[in-house]
């Protein structure tokens, strides 16, 4: 019986992990030296996160997909408890005005990262159990919508607008791929876009970001500071970059250089060529995850298929938003770059998502081989 897994997915994900460690080290040395007296403070911690992510990924690879299917509702409840817990004073840890983390020793658990994974698992199980109802009746469509709205409200209260968009966008994609009626889907899409616009204009700081987005240089030393510094980093990088470790913008010019804006530092040090190769690696991760999901769907493993597509959508959406923010394509918001940005929760969950995709691939290969053996047996008989 075959035990192989998708080598291209594994290779691209591991390459991004290593590249991320290098870029976090390069981008954080000056800040870490000035703040903690140790230039490798963030690098060492990120290295521990990488090792933890690899260990957790290996453990998750051993978990059969049936377990996720059977415990989808319980995992959703855990996600809601975590999202509510971060709002409780004394439990939630506030950073830069947002209460998104729960301190767990070496790792600050970001509830929204866990919620992304568990919401995908729950919705995939729901679609398998209620697929006909979702496709044909309003009742099957409204139930997951209510869950999504409640989760979105909790995320906005933190506030975590970026994670809200990633989760809602990914869930919309899963509903669309399940074959939901176009009328209902378009109605939901319109409502989501309207709600996103309303949220953006109700909060003054979000409205300020939108205004700055259209002309960041008009507020270069105010609300447009991060974006203009990121754009300067891209300009300095040119075609081939300044060389690894030679970034100027990381020298206290670009805030959050090792977290939300690590891609700008990568472009400055490795140039357009390095940035495009990095985008190629992300494209390869997403493409292989989609290919794995399609193969699972082709042999009737619908839960595997929906989970695979959902995880690919989450990684694709988060990558697009982060890089869009770095390049000025989207308004500035705090959202990590999967596999690369400094941050334990994001890196661990990214590793878990890849491990689940590899598990889907493994079970799909086993199922296909079993089907082939059955067809051979029938032919002989």
Description:
The chain has 381 residues and is mainly alpha-helical. It has helices at residues 7-36, 41-61, 65-70, 72-85, 111-129, 131-136, 138-157, 161-177, 182-202, 204-214, 225-237, 262-298, 302-327, 344-380, and strands spanning 92-95, 98-104, 107-110. The protein has one domain. 45% of the residues are buried. The mean pLDDT is 86.
Encode the helix/strand succession as letters.
HHHHEEEHHHHHHHHHH
Shape: globular
- Summed over residues and divided by their number, the pLDDT gives a mean of 86
| Total of DSSP H or I helical runs spanning 4+ residues | 14
Main beta-sheet annotation: 3 strands, antiparallel
Whole-number tally of structural domains: 1
Layout: helices, strands, pairs:
Layout: H1 7-36, H2 41-61, H3 65-70, H4 72-85, E1 92-95, E2 98-104, E3 107-110, H5 111-129, H6 131-136, H7 138-157, H8 161-177, H9 182-202, H10 204-214, H11 225-237, H12 262-298, H13 302-327, H14 344-380
Antiparallel strand pairs: 1-2, 2-3
Subcellular location: Cell inner membrane; Cell membrane
Pathway: Cell wall biogenesis; peptidoglycan biosynthesis
EC number: 2.4.99.28
